[in-house]
């Protein structure tokens, strides 16, 4: 029998921003102060829950629970934000009354608290400021703004007729307050432009780290920050959620002979659990807790206990160690959670209700413990999201015939529960270990099916979207439904007028039961809670605006704030890669090369540019292989600028040429007019070296002497080999008067590098510790997250075949455009504009895309699960898409027929509209895409430098020839053939009508466009298009992109590879 649950603790993986914080936590000791100033870089996390709280002094603070990019749990305790409301100023109220009136309010609070002296009074700030009551009245009035250090004092701060001050606030003054009914958390969200699941940033050196022994939560990271130092991102971009931990659980109870089980009579027999990370396909934890022994279950861990009390205690510890961000189940709000709480109460398990992230907060039922009247009565887990899949289905999928788990699973998943009748549960429990195993499998299936429904129906994404639209936290959708009406009234006001509170005021809260003397209470008031005054001023219409509302109206017009938006975080958007941690030469770098290009440094010397994606970074090691060390980072784009490799070719050595002649011959070549650049003192000669080597021209040929001429600038190789040597124009002791053919001068520089270093397509490479220099952003050539300079001799090929065959986490962008369609004929870029661009971003090997975005010309209604960005002008849309493309930083760009249509169409439209920055879509900043003709075709379509381009249509034409039927290679036919799916049912002639309609018709067109993006992604995975292209590129010994861009190079590479293996050199073809 197991005595305790296994440790399922969340891994403490340092996030990029919090890495130093976690290091400080690990080094902390109890002798240090509770908090200390953190002086490292800014820190970012995604908020998942927000709660009200109080400091030890009684002042209010906001508790923002969240998750970092790396999946670490965070609690940010926000201090310094005062709750406030407004009250109309009586006619005779003057500026001189502000101070005395403030004193009177504090006196009133002391009297009203009535003995709860330990609670510090409100540090109220009373100021008179001008606000309009209603836009329609267009009158100017003065309001008193009253701020409270303790948000709980707001309801009692100004009760009509009970504050006696010069009889100005008597009952004869028939006014109500404005904003006093706002919950403290909503006021904070409104004032800080914060929506559900916003990304937040703590500015460098502006937050205090709270050590674990002094923390109030179970979070891995707990910080204290002032409200003005907490930044909510402001740019509107596509959301990419942080990596959330999701726990699905279900309980099995004893069943009475007649009726329904109740916690007062029937015990808990089993609790099944599954934990998975959002975005992953399968749960990584499967655990079932049982009362009584249970036979092992394949793929799951079984923990058995003698008593129910032991089971519940162990499960509570398991729950805290698993530390889920989202808790789900089927009907858990009305059954599982209340049942567990009631059983723990009966068994006197005092620690059990403490399941939230706050150590001192327990779960308490709102109504009677049992039976539960409503799902709204179920308590939530503070700091975690609670989502009942049954309640979600009832709300968003009305009209189903039945809502039992068996029925909904059959409807949505085509799966059913295990065949165990409820009445047979006691028999199985009272049997043996094998019978209890059958019950445990049944219980685990009841955990797994809600998890599948949760993922299939994107329940969390829908709830987050609804919370964003309602402008409330996600948990408030269930716990505080009336908040939605408050938020809607606030948003309707739009900053143009104040929102009147309901006439009936809330009751006065009971702050504390601690009995402290009234004198101490008043002394602490004057010492710690000084009231800050502000002067009375007239309202100036032109000068007053809430910045949030101004932004909100602009954003709303663009349809950007439709539930899928998130602020931009200092240039790194949620759809972009994870932030790169500072790298230095104490770490070696391993990456997978995806593209190779030729370049040169500032002095004109040649460089090889190797673009790739990191798999991991390792600590120092001496072997040329993948170490078995814990990876630090993965999935970052990298450019390795390889220097020190000189291009070269061979030329027959004329008789009479000796080693002593090599240096004079080099000087002779460098002095030729075509190579001389007006040399200066620091000018490096183009010809760097000449050697004499014995080479043969066939496998069994006789070796003879050849000159190996190495060049510092690879671009000069044809100048020397063709113009001078081949044509006999090199005058050196009359030795080159009879011109001969050169050898291997036609081999491109990049191919020569790959041949000499045995590097193939998508090879794994490694730069050892201390052998590279990181190039800062100001001097970088590329958009890559990491750019390094390395000497050729320090670049190593990983020699473990298993690792070489695996792919790094390559980012895949699939896109498709929709254009206007003429009445007759085919759209052309000269006349028809681009009206929509659909996009999906995924990681190679992942089943679902992480980003779905649609750029539209004209407004478009929201699309569930996708981000809609609308624009008035086509030029604005193209410019925004170019920025989106660079932020996504895709490694592989795919689509259907994009090389013959979409890419060239976009480039032509950008040229016509004079969007000058648009062609810069590659990873080299200064290298634009250039068209070779108006519609260059598949083979001549420009690629994206540093990225891989794969057209799914042309891949299928090449690898799956012979598909039969008219239009057999159209996307609809191909998708039906391979996927058993079809495109959306919209004929291309209907596109102009849909575009010229309204937001809803453009939504139908956007769904059509997104489907044309999604199907190529499915085909890419189903047909293993990328894997096949990589295999053929490896076999041909050429870079991946060369398979399309320069097919003739495959012949050159084949000849050269055979020569390398046969140890001979290849002659150049005569011109």
TrEMBL record:
Q: What is its EC number?
A: 2.7.7.7
InterPro entries, alphabetized: DNA-dir_DNA_pol_B, DNA-dir_DNA_pol_B_exonuc, DNA_pol_type-B, RNaseH-like_sf, RNaseH_sf
Q: Does the keyword DNA-binding apply?
A: yes
Q: What class of enzyme is it?
A: transferase
Keywords from UniProt, A to Z, are: DNA replication, DNA-binding, DNA-directed DNA polymerase, Nucleotidyltransferase, Transferase
The GO molecular function terms of this record are: 3'-5'-DNA exonuclease activity; DNA binding; DNA-directed DNA polymerase activity; nucleotide binding
Annotated GO biological processes are: base-excision repair, gap-filling; DNA replication proofreading; nucleotide-excision repair, DNA gap filling
**GO cellular component: a single term:** delta DNA polymerase complex
Q: Which reaction equation describes what this protein catalyses?
A: DNA(n) + a 2'-deoxyribonucleoside 5'-triphosphate = DNA(n+1) + diphosphate
The keyword DNA-binding belongs to this UniProt entry's keyword annotation: yes
- Residue ranges of domain DNA-directed DNA polymerase family B exonuclease in the record: 176-407, 741-974
Q: Which family does it belong to?
A: Belongs to the DNA polymerase type-B family.
Official protein name in the record? DNA polymerase delta catalytic subunit
Q: Which organism is it from?
A: Gymnopilus dilepis
